[in-house]
Write the structure tokens for this entry.
Amino acid sequence: MDLKQQIKAGAIVPLALEFKAADGRVSKVKAIAGFTPPSQ
């Protein structure tokens, strides 16, 4: 994953995922992910 900068805890980040099936079909998914610090 190429990031322009490090993702900080609490940040909301848009994601664009692309999946390619064995038959060549491509599916694209857009999502938003929230990042929280790991629990210790």
